[in-house]
Amino acid sequence: MGPELTEKLTGSALASERTQVILETIAGECRVQDACERLDICQQRFERRRVLAIEAGIAALELKPAGRPAKVLSETEIEHIRLKQRIEELEAELKITHIRTVE
Domain range holding 29? Predict the structure, then answer.
C-alpha cells in the first residue's frame, strides 16, 4: 500500500485527497507542479501544507509516557486527602495514648 491508503482511513474527502497528493510527491509518483494543479493551490501553499503534514506525522510518532496521564486533583480533593491523613495520625496517637493509660 502506498498513498492510496488514505482512501481507507478516517477523515474528510478533502483531507484524504490532500494527504494522498502530498504522499505521492514524497514517493516521487507525482511532480509538485502537478500536485499544485490537482489541489488548485500555488507551490508555496503546497510546500507549507507538506511541511505541516510531515511535522504532524513526526509529532504523532513521538514517544509518550506509558500508562494513563496523572489525574489533576481539585482543591477539594486535595483537602479531603489531607484531612483523611490527619484523621489517621490522630487515631494512631489516640491508640498510643490509650495503650499508655491502660498499662
Answer: 3-60
Q: Report CA dihedral (43, 44, 45, 49) to the nearest 10 degrees.
A: 100
Distances in Å between the Cα of 100 and the Cα atoms of 51, 86, 87, 91 are 74, 21, 20, 14
Tell me, yes or no, whether 68 lies in a domain: no
Is residue 84 in a domain?
Answer: yes
Q: What are the φ and ψ backbone dihedral angles of 10, each rounded to 5 degrees? A: -75, 150
Helix runs in 1-103, H state only: 13-26, 32-39, 43-60, 75-102
pTM: 0.58
Are 11 and 37 found together in one domain? yes
Could you report the per-residue pLDDT of 48-65, keeping only the tens digit for each? 999 999 999 999 999 988
